[in-house]
Design brief:
Blueprint lengths: L2 H4 L2 E2 L5 E5 L2 E6 L2 E6 L5 E4 L3 E5 L5 H22 L2 E8 L4 E5 L2 E5 L6 E3 L5 E4 L5 E6 L2 H13 L10 E4 L14
Antiparallel strand pairs: 1-6, 2-3, 3-4, 5-6, 7-12, 7-13, 8-9, 9-10, 11-12
């Protein structure tokens, strides 16, 4: 029994939802998003709500119903409010800067790392040790944040590297001196 899947997704003003075959199209003031829907799920688009209907009470269909409803809700909220991820850079001499749309990371390597974000993603660097990633696609925002974090993941001895804002890095004890 999917509790989340049973809830209807409300459509705010300015958002248009349409379906072409197995693709669901959501248009808003921040752009357009597409999502392919599983063939077993049925999407009912009413005047200001969208409901997901499952074909049976099977556990697989219940989980698919919840997933489909959440994907639709993420598309709608992404096109109205947008999503953000914040990253922190820890380490002496580690910093980030923005040159045009390219993110330049100085992370203690012998060379700077240049990262060009996808076209629907905007990156801001308010301080040299902070990065803000914004976009309307939740999955793409998280993927870009994970990619930037992978350039220098936080290490467990000093905690140096790139981490999500508020992420706790458990530190290990160093080598014991005798």
């Amino acid at each position: 029994m999917s509790r989340i899947g049973k809830l209807p997704v409300s459509i705010p003003a300015g958002i248009q939802i349409g379906q072409q075959g197995r693709e669901l199209l959501v248009k808003g003031q921040k752009g357009e998003l597409k999502q392919s829907i599983h063939p077993d799920m049925k999407i009912v688009i009413e005047e200001n709500t969208v409901r997901v209907i499952k074909p049976s009470e099977n556990a697989f269909h219940s989980s698919l119903q919840g997933l489909t409803r959440t994907l639709i809700q993420n598309m709608v909220s992404g096109l109205t409010d947008g999503f953000t991820k914040k990253l922190e850079i820890m380490g002496v001499g580690f910093r980030a800067e923005l040159k045009g749309k390219t993110l330049v990371l100085l992370l203690g390597f012998s060379h700077p790392i240049y990262f060009v974000p996808p076209e629907n993603i905007t990156i801001e660097v308010p301080v040299p040790t902070g990065i803000i990633i914004k976009g309307s696609d939740k999955q793409l925002v998280g993927q870009v944040a994970a990619k930037i974090r992978s350039f220098r993941a936080p290490e467990p001895y000093k905690g140096k590297g790139i981490r999500y804002a508020g992420e706790y890095v458990r530190k290990k004890a160093g080598k014991a001196t005798a």
